[in-house]
Here is the input.
Amino acid sequence: MARNRGVPLDLDGFAALDRERRQLITAVERLKAERNKTSDEIARLKKDKQDATQLITEMKRVSDEIKSGDGRAAALDAKLREFMLTVPNLPHASVPVGGGPEGNVEVRRWGAPPKFDFQPRPHWEVGEGAGILDLQAATKMSGARFALFRGAGARLSRALANYMLDLHTQKHGYEEILPPFLVNTSSLVGVGQLPKFAAEMFHLEGTDLWLTPTAEVELTNLYRDETLEEAQLPLNVCAWTACFRAEAGAAGKDTRGIMRQHEFHKVELFKFTKPEQSYEEHEKLVRDAEAVLQGLGLHYRVMQLCTGDMGFASAKTYDIEVWLPGANEFREISSCSNCEAFQARRSGIRYKPKGGPSSAAGGVRTSKSEFVHTLNGSGLAVGRTWLAVVENYQQKDGSILIPEILQPFMGLKQIPGTRKSS
Here is the structure.
């Protein structure tokens, strides 16, 4: 399975460590039994007022060996845990095997590309021409891969976030959360971001805090080390946050515009479910994300990712890709994943089923807790939705029409352009 995901794992090395640990534990247990026996013998000799000096010396030697063995065993345990944290989730049986994006499978499309009587321009040209996107000012303040929105551009970003949150909370049944944007190491380990993706995140020097790469981190950790009741499931939450990524592996990609940023805003959807309902809820989550694009009238397609293109924690993933006429291609705007029990196991999130299997004593019903399944998806990435609206609704004179569903949030039907029609 790891080979299908393109993840190299030193299984022989892991097995060797495990064998060494098992052998060491066995040897230490024998030494402990010997120590216990010697202690009893020393106690007997002292009771009989006999010399126990030799046995006391021997027991000290055994105790030193036990201490050394326990230390080596703890070090081996740490190495085994470190290895296990690098093992990705197992893909679901329905996931196609493939080595990368070329192995992904299109599931469906919605809508059609807009038709233009002029050559559509990329969002950075439209945005800068309309005075709503100022990349130069952002670079002056913060460097490359940051954006600054002005006037109606800032309002459009806020309107999109409000539209998404209202849709998901009022129609799709999610509870809105506004979490901290700084998260600790334990939270990141639980969701599978650490240790694998440390180079792609921003760490605050001298602290245990990191800038959140996605609200998936905070939402997963709402119930870390807790046990939910079955009646609470499925439990649906959503959150708008800023997200921060170093994009360390993205050198040279999407250097123009706001497609790939160090800081961006996103509305995240998250579900805690029972195992038997997680795949039905996964399909619902994807439909909830699609509803945002349908409301905006944006053409998109849904892709099922293959084994080699899925995220580390995912068992099954759908990507939603929106049509960008300025680039003349589909680009990802949401990734919706079922992580099954992978994150819950690392984070200690369980639920208690009603009743449970009969116990051996008298057939009494007991409730044994089980791990929940966790699901996450962008609903949607606000910046990428912003650029999709700008590119799809651009006009020949450089103005931008506002989708009808956003007009109440914007108080505008059109963003004027500064470019004269030819």
Remarks:
- The CA atoms of residues 178 and 339 lie 23 Å apart.
- Residues 357-366 have pLDDT under 50 and may be disordered.
- The chain has two domains: 11-84, 101-415.
- The two ends are 57 Å apart (CA to CA).
